[in-house]
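Consider the following input, taken from an annotated entry for DUF2383 domain-containing protein (Pseudomyxococcus hansupus).
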Amino acid sequence: MASTNKDVETLNSFLRGEISAVETYRQARGHVTDDLARDALDYCQQDHEHRVEEIRERILRMGGEPAEGSGIWGTFAKLVQGGADMLGEKAAIQALEEGEDHGLADYQRDADQVHGEARRFVRMELIPAQKRTHERLSRLKRTIH
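Applying the prediction step yields:
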C-alpha cells in the first residue's frame, strides 16, 4: 500500500506538470501568428492534453485522487511564458522548449520512484511522448526567424 501511495504521489507530480504544459501552450498560442508554428503548438498542446487524461485515468485505477491543477509550477511557468510572450514568438517558443526540457528531466529523474505497471507506463508511454513533443518544438525553434 505504501508503494501505491508513493506511486500516486509521483504520478500526481507528473500530472501537475502536464496540466501546466497545457496551460502554458494555450497561453503561448495566443501570441504566435505563424501558421506553421501554431500548428506545431496545437500538436504539442494536444499531446500534453492526452497525457493529462492518461495520467488521471492511471491514478484513478490505482485508487488515488488526481490533482486538479498545476500547482506552484503552473504559476511559475505562466510567469516565464508571459515574459517570453512580450518578447515575441521566438522567445515564447524558447520558453516552451525549456519547459519541455524540464518535463523530460522530471520524468527521467523520477521514473524509478514508481513501481510495476506505473513504471512501465512512465518509461514506455510518458517519456517517449515527452521526447516527441520536445523534438517537435526543437525543430520549430530552428525554423522560426
